[in-house]
Every structure is written in structure tokens, then in C-alpha cells.
Design a protein that fits this description.
The longest helix has 20 residues. By secondary structure, the chain is an alpha+beta fold. Strand 1 and strand 2 form a beta hairpin. It starts with a helix and ends in a 5-residue tail after the last strand. A 4-stranded mixed sheet has the order 3-8-9-7, with no helix packed on it. The protein has a 3-stranded antiparallel sheet with strand order 4-5-6, with no helix packed on it. The chain is about 20% helix and about 35% strand.
């Protein structure tokens, strides 16, 4: 009985260690406010909070001035902290390609 209990405790300790040490699947790095950017947007450290004035409003969406990309209102993602965020990755073919644009909830 004691041997069985020790084996069970060892398995439980191992499972807890895995759960604590394993990265959360499906999430990239965190915003300064604490929420995690999704992996489809984030390549490690390429997401950041931005000032709304950094973008240019256009008919039906937003222009990202440093790349010339446009994001239609329906293509943006809701920001969990109510702030503006952008994810741009280093791509040799397209420097600073924008993967995701997060807008405050009032935009939805």
C-alpha cells in the first residue's frame, strides 16, 4: 500500500512539474498589461502596444503607415486591455509585415 501511494505521489509531482514548466500552447509573448498575444500573430517578441495616432484612418479600416498595409475593420482583433497593439515580424521579403492589429472594444 505504501509503495503504491509513493508511486502515485511521484506521478502527481511529475504532472504538476510539467504543468508549471510547460509553455502555454497557442500563445506568444505577453503584452505589458499581462494578456498573451496569440501565436498566429506573434513570432516571439514582435507585438507591442502602439498609440492610435500612429495609424491612419481610411474608409473602412486603418492604414499602417510604415508598411502601406491596410486593415479592414473586420480584419482587426479585439484588444483585451482596451489599448491598441500591433504585431509586425521581421520578414526579409517584407520588412515589418503586419500580422495582427488589435483595437479597443469600442471599435467592435
Amino acid at each position: 500500500m505504501r509503495r503504491r501511494l509513493n508511486a502515485l505521489l511521484a506521478v502527481l509531482a511529475f504532472a504538476v512539474t510539467l504543468a508549471i514548466d510547460s509553455p502555454r500552447p497557442g500563445f506568444g509573448h505577453q503584452a505589458l498589461s499581462g494578456w498573451a498575444y496569440p501565436m498566429e500573430c506573434c513570432g516571439g517578441e514582435d507585438c507591442r502596444e502602439i498609440d492610435e495616432r500612429w495609424l491612419r484612418p481610411i474608409k473602412g479600416g486603418w492604414l499602417v503607415p510604415n508598411t502601406g498595409e491596410t486593415f479592414a475593420y473586420g480584419r482587426t482583433k479585439p484588444s483585451p486591455d482596451g489599448r491598441w497593439h500591433i504585431c509586425q515580424g521581421p520578414d526579409p521579403e517584407r520588412p515589418n509585415q503586419t500580422y495582427c492589429l488589435f483595437t479597443p472594444p469600442w471599435m467592435w
